[in-house]
Amino acid sequence: MKILYLFFMCAAIVTAQETDTPKLPQIFPVSPEAASLGKYGDLPVNLSTGKINYSVPLYTIKVKDFEWPIYLSYNYSGLMVEEDPGYTGLGWDLMATGRITRDIKGIPDEMDVGNNFKNNSVVPYLTGAYDNLPYEDYEDQRFLIYNQIAELNKDGQYDNYVISAGEVNGTFKINHDNEIVFLNHRNYIAEKDFVIDEKGIKYYFDEIELAEYNISLGYDSAPIEVPSSYLLTKIELPNNGGEILFEYEPFNYATDVHYKKVWSNTEVTGIENRFDITNTQTALYTRLLKKIVFPNGEVRFTITPHDESFTNRHGPDTKRSFSLDDISVYSGNNQILKYDFVYNNASKSKKLLKEIVKSKNSITEPFYTFDYNNESFSINHDYTTQDFWGYYNGKSASNLLLATREIDTVKTRYGALETITYPTGGSTVIGYEQNKVYNELGNTSVTCSYTHNANRIIRLNADEPFVQKNLDTTIDVGASQIVRIVITAAVKKGTTSNALGNEANISVTAKNASELCGQSVISNFSLSADAENCASYPSGVPCWDNLVLTKEITGFAEDGIIYISGSVMELANKEAYIECKIYYENIKTTYGNKNVGGIRVASTTDCDNLGNCYTKKYKYENPKFNRSSGVILGGNPKFEYSTYHQNEPNHSTGHRIYRSAKSKTPFTSYQGSPVLYERVVIEQNNGENGYTVNTYSKGNTNSNPGFPFLGSTNYDWEKGKLRTSWVYKEENGLYKPIRKTINKYSTFYPYGIGTNNTRKAYGMAVGRTTYRWTGMGRYEGEPNDYAEDYNTYYARDYKLVQTVVEDIMEQDTITTTIDYEYDEPYTQLIEKITTNSKGETLKQKVFYPYSVYGNGILVYQNRLAIPIQTMNYKVLPNNTEQLLSAQQTLYYNSGLPKTIRTLKGPYQATNNPYQDRIDYDKYDAEGNPIEVSISSGPPISYIWGYDKQYPVAKVENATYADVIGTGITESVYNNSGTTDSAMRTELNKIRTGLPTAMVTTYTYDPLVGVTSITDPKGYTIYYYYDGFNRLKEVKDAEGKLVTDYEYHYKNQ
């Protein structure tokens, strides 16, 4: 059984408006209770994205008041072709460790350390240091900077670092002054290899994962090995409070990264025409989590590598993947708990987690089982089978640029979790539907999605011998269309003669052909079948008998006009024809709800083990207008850019177009989701239990600037915040609002913005747009031959500043308004103002270590989030504040609490001063309190055992020195291997040695629970646990059964 110890650190400050007398720290466990069978149903859904936000708790490491949970987290938006799932299968992530992940911008920052180019050149340029130079000097300086960055000789951007370790998270850059700039403001002290959070807890990231990085996209590029992640190795609690260690084992493998691009050209004279498809393998020198070590225990992980064999369109191939086989919890050499993970095929990279089995030694019991959509799917790692968003559509091609990128709403759902069966036998069934946005129908550069629901067929037959028939026609399928065109040229019942024979020729061109979403330009797309060239046809094909050639292309028709031309001719009694099939979207209205990438949750149905079910439906449209509330925040995707070339001495000129099959700018926007929904209706049991309407913030819309593709800042933390919530109940067939909540948020810049900012980072990208060849072996250049883009990155925070709640009654509405105020630059809550419907206002002020003199040690330890004083006021009608109560905590120089003081009413130094309530007189070396007193009352002492992890004795009316003076032996009571009987015998020395003291003693099974409690009268209650560490029996001192517990799971 898991026992939670509540320490004094948690109880130091209360937040009620009336402060009661502080109570002694709740150090000891209360009497154990029966274990919960586990909650089922009520599946959490992130409504702003429509994705499940579900977790399966496995084990929680506890070190004093610090908790480190280990669990599985499920987050799935559809089957991504090129996404490699983690150790636990599609959609699931093992949350057990932490890391700092680096996102390289430009070239790796460390390659600029010696030259300090950003500091000495980029930052001065962006801050105007060169503005007063003579024009020629300014242009020379600008050209030098542009050329160095564009040629990737120097770096103009700072890398991004993303922290993810339990509750510690954030994104930062290390700027030109070597300062940490958190883009989403945090009060952390951070470097690449450690972070100290605002509670003073230090996280070490000393294990490095390496990856190969291509320093250039040119032909002469060579990969270099650079750190890609820094893995969590230790958590260190302040004041010697203990530590948690993370151990890894190295493993090297390679993963496919498909950077697909085509180099082509239009309007070119003398410019080389290139078509280059690049497939790269990126080697990763990864680390596999092996164990987590903490006081009195450790968690062990078994992760197995697999080589998955498969056959794709290139032939036989293999791919390396990993599976988490089991997790075991140990106390010393004793296994406390084990979880085994069962997959449909553990060797597959896109495996599915089917079951979690819970066991201890040889005893097992059912835990969780899972079922998924179309579990037998196989995609054979063909990267071309993806829509624009990267989701599986099953349509293969020779390369991604020529692929059909249409959304397949059925295949996108493959592998989605559909049923969860809980240990109790209850279950949840999940329904999905495709993401949608309200947008212009047809294809647009905003959505890059399309649907083919109609087709046109044009066919020309040769029906008169030796007469050539011609085709010249135009088809209008409607503007802004991505169309799929299949052309056929056939010569059948031909002739064996190579001089005479049937002919079939066809060519297709789209008017105003242009690029959109990386699609091919449809221009002179042609095919010929000619019996005269019979010998050139594939071996074994009897062209004189039955030759049918087909070819297809998917491309953009800007105004929907398709030109088709061709000709056919046949001999007597022979056959030839040409055919063109055009697949397009039949648009009936201009705007409508349009499919975009990925899936969303449409419904959840919870059923208990008796078959009683409860359904929730999620509606992402405004029912009044039938419009999806989804918005795309990623900005318009960019698939191409062009450069201008001037080749001397022959004076040829032209543009080269660089086209990529994937957007050069981010295509998804919020937490990896293509869509954010601003309005969601949650309907409960078909409305029988009412419904709720929530609206969410969309924050800043990310812009996607074009070449040279600097990229935009992701402000995810400002998105998806609950703005309003209306709750309705059903009454006699009508729905009435019963509660309304309105939340308001504000953006804070803790270090200012613009010229007033004191901490920021810069970024600059440069690309060359014009090349002028001199004929002498080099390119000439000037600043205007380059395109630049830059950004200034400020620390910012997005905070809730007001909540208004209206409870709507039949005759009245009760309104509660809460206003929040924050300080700078910490953006921590300093005032909470609550006003009711009567206009009565209460105010609470909170003070932190940096705002009260004498708390330098806490500031030094970065324990900035600890509230050390609260003051509660009543705001009078004349707007003056009347102090009602206050509480403050004083600290030793070590940073440990010394005294908790309280105040009732207005402070007066003589008549109503602060009163000392609890004094922490002594601590041991691990920061455990060992002697405490209340308001100058008798001392209370504590003895800590089992390697100082558990309190084993509470002694009232005796000092710690008195207790130690009874002769108790530390090597006995502080040894985790001491038996319960020996522990009780040893602790009984305190009772006999201090007859006037009140002594309560405890024994434990470490990591399981308390096994006995002996009260001050010497009466002992015993607690027994089953094979899964759940309380089974409670017996009294005579061995008589007091309470018996039984646990029944499904099929039991």
CATH C-level class of the domain at 454-584:
Mainly Beta
Beta fraction: over 45%
Shape: globular
Q: Compute the separation of the termini in Å.
A: 21 Å
Q: Roughly what is the average pLDDT, rounded to an integer?
A: 84
The helix content is under 10%
Number of strands: 65
Q: What does the oligomeric state look like here?
A: single chain
Question: What is the second-level CATH architecture of the domain at 454-584?
Answer: Sandwich
* SS content category: mainly beta
CATH fold type of the domain at 454-584: Jelly Rolls
Low-confidence stretches: 1-19, 258-279
Biggest beta sheet summary: 41 strands, antiparallel
Rounded to an integer, what's the Rg over CA atoms?
35 Å
Number of helices: 8
Short description:
The protein is mainly beta. Helices cover 6% and strands 47% of the residues. The protein has a 41-stranded antiparallel β-sheet that branches.
Describe the structure.
With 1052 residues, the chain is mainly β. The protein has a domain at 454-584: Jelly Rolls. Helix content is 6%, strand content 47%. It is built from eight helices and 65 strands. The strands form nine sheets. The protein has a 41-stranded antiparallel sheet that branches. It has a five-stranded mixed sheet with strand order 17-40-39-47-48, with no helix packed on it. A four-stranded antiparallel sheet has the order 26-33-28-31. A hairpin with a 4-residue loop joins strand 58 (929-934) and strand 59. The relative contact order is 0.11. The model is unreliable at 1-19 and 258-279 (pLDDT under 50).
